[in-house]
């Protein structure tokens, strides 16, 4: 229709359908295994009476309504940019503005943080394990320098971030194939780590003591004894619930990624459904294995002490390097196994980073398409089939965040970042599904079964998300160790949480006023229609 041509920048998004279900599968696994399991378990010292086994199963169950909500929304609205489309079309464009600000702030910042984790828990310990197993001092020292030398560390993080940005702007088919290859390596690597840890406590104790003796470090039993103050054999239901919530927030919610590229899948509804279901099932199985095997091999007291205090300053392979280090020390006498542990898990954030750089570029494109942002941001490079200008802006933001976080000018809790996503993306998307189940979705014919599913999943997901945010922040008021580990500096982190909706609302009204004055267009008209493919 002529009205829609005047409202939208063009009749097509410019994005191309190049991906299949295996690529959706890869995106689901992006942040799930194995490093995210380690970086969530490190909160365990603040929850000494949590039941790990019960907690991890509860986490997978309470995440299901959110998973099903995204699955249904992506099926019914197969457009790239994810929640932004759901929220603006079903709820209100003001809330879409808030989601846009939250996404464009949080995901480039997350990309910067992930590039640093990639060095600390991926590349550096992989070099150390390879160097130690093959008696290559140059490789071992390179890995060690990356961990202890700030210049090496910063330079490596910047290089990794820029390299992953180049991956993010490739044609979707090539970027997705890269992600699938790395995700497959992570799955195999995660299974290998589970197998190694499943040898039990005696095998881990012997391997750790052998490594520690080389550097005059502490024994397993001494760290175990010190860790007993961070462990209680009597299970506390509240702490188990908190363990489950943290596990859900940092492990089981990262299946939303395929929805941000829904307009770039062949047979989008079917591909996304198959990929998400397969990814969730496999990721959950590996997470269960990692958590239970960690408890079985290292014991909770030893893990809690070492994750909080390290396992001795004289040992160059750091406890904080995660599963490559934990499993790697058990196979140093077997170079072949050490090689596979290091290589298969080397690119642990090589799936996540391209996504955290590509996702906000799709949001910027969609906001530009709706005229909330300058039209140039909707430009899609005809050769790369990528929103190149938007991607360049995302890279600039990520580089700025890389610098300010490395220099300590901005210290943001990762759980607070997840809380931002929960409040201003996931929760708003869940409410969109709930409302869509009542009022329907613009331009979409829904059966009574479709509406019922959206209503049920959206309602349950909203309850889960509100509960998770409330308890994750409330518990900081009753547990000081938890507060220091999870929240960090409350002034900065709470200012971010409160500031994002304010900025989003102000920006929406400025953009609407500008478009009315400059072009004579009420941008709210665009939000009454699903944008073209």
Provide an overview of this structure.
It is a single chain. By secondary structure, the protein is mainly alpha-helical. It has a single domain (about 30-525), classed as Up-down Bundle (Amino acid/polyamine transporter I), CATH 1.20.1740. It is about 70% helix and about 0% strand. Helix 7 (about 95-135) runs antiparallel to helix 17, helix 7 runs antiparallel to helix 18 (about 350-370) and helix 7 (about 95-135) crosses helix 23. The two termini are about 15 Å apart. Residues about 1-5 have low confidence and may be disordered.
Give the key terms.
Amino acid/polyamine transporter I, 533 residues, globular
The CATH level-2 architecture is identified as Up-down Bundle
Measured between the Cα atoms of the first and last residue, the distance is 15 Å
Approximate helicity band = over 70%
Main sheet makeup: none
Q: State the CATH superfamily name.
A: Amino acid/polyamine transporter I
Mean pLDDT: 88
Number of helices: 23
From the alpha-carbon coordinates, what is the Rg to the nearest angstrom? 23 Å
Shape verdict: globular
Q: Class in CATH?
A: Mainly Alpha
The ordered H/E elements are HHHHHHHHHHHHHHHHHHHHHHH
Counting DSSP E segments of at least 2 residues, the number of strands comes to: 0
Would you identify the regions where 5 or more consecutive residues have pLDDT less than 50? 1-5
Strand fraction equals: under 5%
CATH topology call: Amino acid/polyamine transporter I
SS content category: mainly alpha
The total domain count is 1
């Amino acid at each position: 229709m002529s009205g829609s041509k005047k409202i939208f920048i063009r009749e097509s998004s410019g994005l191309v359908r190049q991906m299949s279900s295996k690529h959706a599968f890869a995106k689901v696994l992006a942040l799930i295994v194995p490093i995210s399991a380690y970086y969530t378990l490190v909160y365990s010292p603040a929850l000494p009476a949590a039941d790990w086994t019960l907690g991890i199963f509860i986490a997978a169950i309470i995440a299901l309504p959110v998973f099903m909500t995204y699955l249904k929304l992506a099926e019914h609205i197969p457009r790239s940019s994810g929640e932004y489309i759901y929220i603006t079309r079903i709820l209100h464009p003001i809330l879409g503005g808030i989601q846009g600000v939250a996404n464009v702030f949080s995901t480039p910042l997350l990309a910067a943080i992930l590039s640093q984790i990639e060095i600390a828990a991926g590349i550096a310990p992989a070099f150390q394990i390879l160097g130690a197993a093959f008696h290559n001092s140059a490789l071992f020292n390179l890995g060690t320098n990356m961990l202890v030398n700030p210049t090496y560390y910063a330079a490596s993080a910047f290089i990794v971030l820029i390299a992953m940005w180049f991956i993010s702007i490739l044609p979707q088919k090539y970027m997705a194939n890269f992600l699938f290859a790395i995700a497959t390596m992570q799955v195999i690597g995660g299974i290998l780590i589970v197998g190694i840890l499943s040898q039990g406590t005696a095998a881990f104790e012997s391997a750790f003591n052998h490594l520690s003796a080389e550097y005059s470090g502490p024994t397993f039993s001494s760290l175990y004894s010190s860790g007993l103050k961070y462990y209680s054999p009597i299970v506390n239901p509240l702490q188990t619930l908190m363990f489950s919530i943290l596990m859900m927030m940092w492990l089981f919610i990262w299946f939303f990624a395929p929805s941000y590229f829904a307009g770039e899948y062949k047979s989008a509804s079917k591909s996304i459904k198959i990929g998400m279901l397969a990814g969730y099932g496999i990721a959950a199985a590996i997470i269960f294995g990692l958590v239970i095997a960690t408890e079985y091999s290292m014991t909770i007291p030893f893990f809690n002490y070492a994750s909080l205090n390290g396992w001795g300053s004289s040992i160059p392979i750091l406890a904080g390097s995660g599963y490559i280090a934990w499993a790697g020390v058990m196979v140093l006498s077997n170079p072949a196994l050490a090689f596979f542990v290091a290589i298969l898990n080397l690119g642990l954030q090589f799936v996540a980073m391209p996504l955290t750089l590509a996702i906000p570029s799709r949001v910027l494109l969609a906001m530009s398409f709706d005229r909330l942002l300058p039209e140039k941001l909707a430009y899609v490079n005809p050769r790369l089939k990528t929103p190149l200008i938007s991607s360049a802006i995302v890279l600039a933001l990520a580089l700025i965040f890389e610098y300010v976080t490395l220099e300590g000018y901005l210290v943001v809790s990762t759980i607070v970042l997840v809380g931002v996503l929960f409040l201003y993306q996931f929760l708003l998307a869940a409410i969109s599904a709930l409302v869509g189940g009542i009022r329907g979705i613009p331009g979409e014919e829904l059966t009574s079964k479709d509406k019922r599913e959206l209503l049920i999943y959206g309602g349950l997901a909203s309850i889960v998300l509100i509960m998770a945010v409330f308890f994750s922040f409330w518990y900081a008021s009753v547990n000081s160790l938890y507060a220091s580990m999870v929240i960090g500096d409350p002034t900065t982190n709470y200012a971010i949480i409160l500031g994002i909706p304010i900025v989003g609302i102000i920006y929406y009204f400025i953009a609407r006023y500008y478009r009315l004055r400059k072009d004579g267009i009420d941008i709210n008209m665009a939000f009454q229609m699903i944008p073209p493919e």
